Structures are given as structure tokens and as C-alpha cells.
Amino acid sequence: MSNRLAVDQPTRGADRNRSLADQADPAADEMLLPQLDDGITLLDVEGGRGVPILQSLVLDHLLLHDGPAFWVDANGHATTTLAQIAPSQRLLNRIHVARGFTAYQHYGAVCDLPTAVNKSIQMSTTDARAAGRGEPSRDEDTSPHTPALIVAPAVDAQYRADDTLGENHAKTLQARTLARLANYADGYDIPVLVTRNERNEFTESVATVADHHLECEQTRMGPRVVGEDFETLVYPVDDGAYYQTTFAYWRQLLAARATQVGVEPTTSAPSTPTPEGVGTGVTADGETVAATADPLLDAWTATGGGR
Q1: Tell me, what's the pLDDT at 50?
Q2: Rounded to two decimals, what is the model's pTM?
Q3: Which of 87, 163, 191, 271 has its CA 20 to 30 A from that of 249?
């Protein structure tokens, strides 16, 4: 099937998805990616991890809002994809990553998140005072010091896979994790973006606790994102036709967004991203370290237990 459609192809909500070049103020409108609202947003991606929609949503949100993102990783979602599509290294530096390799470690990383946030705020405000100036704000409702987003991909993965836990114990620990994430969303007044590995009885609680639900499905024309008030079928280009979204397109979209909000995009992305290009983390001793593709190096609670 051709990747191009006729202009009169019904697109329903896709009339919001106008090309960046044709908009006078694209940053103010609903764009090609859905907006993340405060509360827990569950993103279900059909067809596995081939679509970088999770990473694109995170980067797009950070381009439009001040403050860092805190990413509690599982199954290696915070790896090279972020570095490949990020328009700027400065954007990656605002992402703090921790990983848990077991259910208890993942839960521990979630529990330790407020400590990581507090350390980040202290370091950020200290640096701002030392520089003798305030950070320019792109959003009057957010601060460059407080969290802008919490990300917890594959939030069910470790609890499902840990064979040291019984089924009831695993469900209880996962429920406590979800409760803490909900408390963080309310306490910080920010979005919390989560995904799940599977849709079944074990992950019904993830859908129950979510305030918003986005679904991304693979189609013959590329990924389609559907939410409560957002739907993307295809993406328009300058000649009025439509074409399939690709990995390169996500990168191009984010680079255009970065230019609009005053973030200078990286001129050329390396063909093989360096391990340092994923983000930053904070150890138990308060040391800021580079987040790498090696999960053993970038947990903000890197103790003898492995978190």
C-alpha cells in the first residue's frame, strides 16, 4: 500500500496536526503529539517498542515546560533512543534516571524519588544563585527547579518477572508503587507517564489508577495516537498530501519544536550515540553521575543492593 494518501482522506481529529511550517505559533497549539496533563497518563503501545512515542512524548513535554524529568526505568527504555531523537544534549541533561532490576529495587527507586527531587532542587537553586541570575522560563506555571515530569515505563515488568514473590505479594507491591506515583502526581502537580508490558488481569490496576489513557497502534501508514481529545492518523506535509511517520520524522519534529522554544538543536547526531547521552542520575551519596546505556552506572540510588 502506498505511503501517500489523497488530500480528502478523512482524518477526524488530525486537522490539529498541521505542519510546523504553516503555523504562526506552533508551540501554542495542540501539536502532532498529545499534551500530557497533570495526573497519571497510561500509554499503551501496540506492537512493542519499535515506535519511539514514549521518548518523543517526554522530550516534547520538556521542550515546552521548565524543570527536570525523573525517569524510573525498567527493561532498558531509557537507552539510546533518547539520544538518537533528542534535539539537544542540554535537554538530555534534564532527565534523571534510576533503574531497579528486581521488584524491590524498582519499588525502592520509586520510594527514593522525593529524595532525588529534593537534591536536584538544592543543586539547581544553588547553581542559579552562584550564577547570579534566574533561569528564563518558557512556562509561567512551571519552575526550572521543580520536576516537570515523572516517567515510569513498563511499570509492571519487575513485579511480574520477580520469581521470589508470590502473585499476591507482587500485586500488593505493584499497587504500592502505583499509589506512590499517584501521590507524586498530586503533590508536584505534574504529569506521570507510565506504560505497561501487557494488558491482562495483573495490570488492570495500572489502568484503574490512570487519570488519562493514550493508545498508540501500528498502522500501514505509521503509528496512530488516540486519547480522550486527541487523535493522529497521518501527518501532513507541505504539498498537501500525507506520509508515513518514521524514526527520522520524530527526530525532525522535535528539532523543529526545539528551535521554536529557543533551544539550539544539536547540529549533527552521531551515528552511534555515546553512552553518556541518556541523562543524569544522583547516587545515594548525592553525587551527580552521567546516565548511560549501562543500567549499572546510572541509578540514583546506586547502593550495594543494585538500585
Answers
A1: 60
A2: 0.70
A3: 191
